[in-house]
């Protein structure tokens, strides 16, 4: 496998640190694939520095891991799950993944998803929805649900970590919007580029897989932030700055190893991959918005205005979980969200939370259908999402203002080189 | 009424033409209100030239007409209708419109929607959702449905033009998502600024009006377009460039008089106002996307790539409805969308179409819930939307790929000066 220029995707791929990246990358070429690239440290994977945005920005599709994991969050996103149809077998699934890979790679360069058919009057079959949008930082990231392994006779290859997530108290999961055999995450700087990619991938799946659910979200890049990394914080519809305690996997190999599958015992198709937990967390905004600001801040443990912990400092100041008021009451309440979610509280459990907000209008009961598309990446959900959610489900002060409506877990294959397709080592392994 | 700097809102409010605008505006100050401002010609109302975008861009709320009509389309939009509750009377409706006006004016400047309450620890009750978004070109535009006049004992003041739209063949309207007593259109450059404004206005309505429906849309400013005017063209989910034949009301007083209510016989509250038709037009994308490109282009009458009419030229070249192929067949088919929608075909009927695309995931039947939030502005719907839609409903080639699911008509009051509230002249008239 050729290690392609993923560094160009990451913001650090430009400027002085970008030069270092290119040198490091060249040193890696031919050095033995994704594992070597991952082992080489932050140069290739860095997420720091300023990144280009907008129509002309290209995030390379090929590389040692899939784009859309350590990539900065794009403003527009669609998440979709598809189920394999009754006639799908390993050959058809492989054909679909080959078609998806080719279309995603072309669209990420701002090209039509298919080459023009000779004699067809230049008609590529494309609808033109994304014309003028440019590459727009488009990423498409593909994953596999547990059901896919059974359906394709690959049960022995199914990783243990892909077991169903446990039931959590207060979950109110809608099966129709949970799970799925195949997962696609699309992100882009442009809404038409994003919709176009979604529609294109759905169209390519016809006859092989049927869309099970789609969720669409938005975010805003941090205003004026010099470092729009994957780990950057964004507001959510509750007004919180979300993701403050995110790891910075581009900068710390130990943290990175908690996000990406790097172990030498991992199957080749999963090396450089990850596990993604998707949860649709609806926010009960009619209640939340009526609370006094101090109540809202105590439930979270952070100030609304700047995201600083209630124990002081700025957004990036570590929270002091031991701090107490003069009357002895802890500044950060026992059930405050940041206390229960803290890696320290969860024996170091780390995830890269890279989600989007959603606003889907009114529910039949008149309440807003709004919240967070929680998307969390980790090398193993059993030591990432699960312990954290177990603790949160036992008493998070925010839980009474949210409802987990959908849940899914997917294994995300490692990246591919040109000529390869996503999951090839699994389907042909 | 003081005529405030609406010119600063319009792109033309900057640079050389902006200087002319300011001079023209100053000449108008104290000259007698909206009618005089409207009569003064394109200087105040111009929509040409390059406009600022992004977090710092402010579109003034006050002016001779409401913002959000001749304003360039912002990327994020929410449309909402509310119904007055059983206890609403004229005084409560007036209090709501006063509160909405104040909040909208403040949010358009990037301020919290309410001033801090003394003694409340600086708590404005704001959720902070829009913190960091800046003014973000936020506009909130308010309108009145026919039902409001009956509910508030204002039936004699209800304009004849606000009569229900006729039934059109093939309409499949959902009453729950049609009509409404009050209308709000929110547009912004930032998704959190837009959602925050919507939630704030809904919260202020509690006890007086209940949200009937909300629709959310997106668009993309034309890439690199030097003239992001209200009349600019944008793609839609079918891939068409939408709005090519739009009037340019900022540049042509005769066209402007078809968009804004300018007649001396208009009631004062409606002077400088408009009528807005809102239609939710779902697109049957699963069918449309499977058509060969020439079929799609013939249904529209324009090329997908650049929006040029099939009779040649560029996007802005007038269509030649008489052109025929060598075999005598018209180049623009008898049922092509642009033939049936052309002002020429409709005795000059003109609307400013200023809509947004929507993508709301999957319908229960698995089809995409996507299409166009059609938003059309005109001085009189009886000579604007109605004749055009009558003709389209009789045979538009596009109609078989679309479904009109919701419909509403609102009278939009003229703009307000500081200290006034939207609709004051109606409610206190």
Protein architecture, described:
The structure is a homodimer of 429-residue chains. Chain A has 429 residues and is of the alpha+beta class. Chain A has a domain at 283-408. The first copy, chain A, is 24% helix and 18% strand. Chain A is built from 13 helices and eleven strands. In chain A, strands 1, 2, 3, 4, 7, 8, 9, 10 and 11 form a nine-stranded antiparallel beta sheet that branches. In chain A, strands 5-6 form a two-stranded antiparallel ribbon. The first copy, chain A, starts with 5 loop residues before the first helix and ends with a helix. At the A-B interface, helix 7, strand 4, helix 10 and strand 9 of A face helix 7, strand 4, helix 10 and strand 9 of B.
Number of strands of chain A: 11
Q: How many H/I helices of chain A?
A: 13
Helix-strand makeup class of chain A: alpha+beta
Largest contact between protein chains?
A: A-B, 55 and 55 residues
Show unreliable segments of chain A.
1-50
Strand content of chain A: 15-25%
Helix % of chain A is 10-25%
What is Rg of chain A? 21 Å
- Described by the principal axes of the CA atoms, the overall outline of chain A is globular
Taken in chain order, the helices and strands of chain A follow as HHHHEHEHEHEEEHEHHHEEEHEH
Report how far apart the termini of chain A are.
15 Å
As an assembly, this protein is homodimer
Mean pLDDT of chain A: 85
Major β-sheet annotation of chain A: 9 strands, antiparallel
């Amino acid at each position: 496998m050729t290690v392609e220029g993923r560094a160009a995707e990451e913001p650090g791929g430009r400027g002085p640190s970008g030069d270092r990246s290119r040198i490091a990358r060249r040193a890696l070429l031919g050095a033995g694939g994704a594992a070597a690239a991952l082992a080489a440290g932050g140069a290739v994977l860095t997420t720091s520095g300023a990144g280009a945005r907008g129509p002309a920005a290209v995030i390379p599709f090929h590389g040692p891991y899939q784009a859309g994991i350590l990539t900065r969050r794009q403003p527009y996103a669609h998440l979709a799950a598809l189920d394999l149809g009754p006639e799908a077998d390993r050959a058809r699934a492989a054909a679909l993944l080959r078609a998806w890979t080719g279309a995603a790679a072309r669209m990420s360069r701002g090209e039509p998803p298919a080459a023009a058919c000779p004699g067809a009057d230049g008609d590529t079959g494309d609808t033109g929805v994304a014309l003028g949008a440019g590459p727009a930082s488009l990423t498409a990231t593909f994953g596999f649900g547990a059901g896919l392994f059974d359906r394709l006779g690959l049960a022995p290859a199914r990783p243990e970590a892909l077991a169903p997530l446990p039931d959590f108290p207060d979950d109110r999961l809608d099966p129709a919007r949970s799970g799925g055999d195949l997962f696609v995450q699309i992100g882009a700087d442009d809404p038409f580029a994003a919709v176009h990619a979604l529609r294109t991938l759905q169209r390519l799946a016809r006859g092989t897989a049927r869309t099970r659910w789609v969720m669409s979200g938005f975010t805003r890049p941090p205003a004026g932030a010099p470092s729009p990394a994957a780990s950057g914080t964004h507001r959510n519809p509750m007004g919180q700055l979300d993701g403050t305690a995110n790891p910075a996997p581009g900068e710390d190999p130990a943290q990175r190893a908690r996000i990406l599958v790097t172990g030498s015992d991992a199957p080749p198709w999963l090396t450089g991959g990850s596990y993604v937990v998707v949860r649709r967390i609806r926010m009960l905004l009619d209640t939340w918005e009526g609370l006094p600001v101090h109540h809202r801040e105590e439930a979270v443990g952070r100030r609304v205005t700047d995201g600083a912990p209630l124990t002081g400092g700025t957004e990036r100041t570590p929270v002091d979980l031991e701090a107490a008021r003069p009357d002895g009451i802890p500044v950060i309440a026992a059930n405050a969200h940041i206390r229960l979610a803290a890696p320290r509280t969860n024996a170091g459990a780390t995830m890269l939370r890279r989600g989007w907000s959603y606003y889907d209008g009114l529910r039949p009961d008149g309440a807003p259908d709004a919240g967070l598309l929680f998307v969390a990446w980790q090398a193993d959900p059993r030591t990432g999402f699960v312990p954290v959610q177990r603790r949160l489900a036992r008493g998070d002060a925010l839980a009474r203002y949210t409802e987990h409506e959908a849940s899914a877990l997917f294994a995300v294959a490692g990246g591919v080189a040109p000529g390869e397709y996503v999951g090839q080592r699994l389907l042909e392994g």
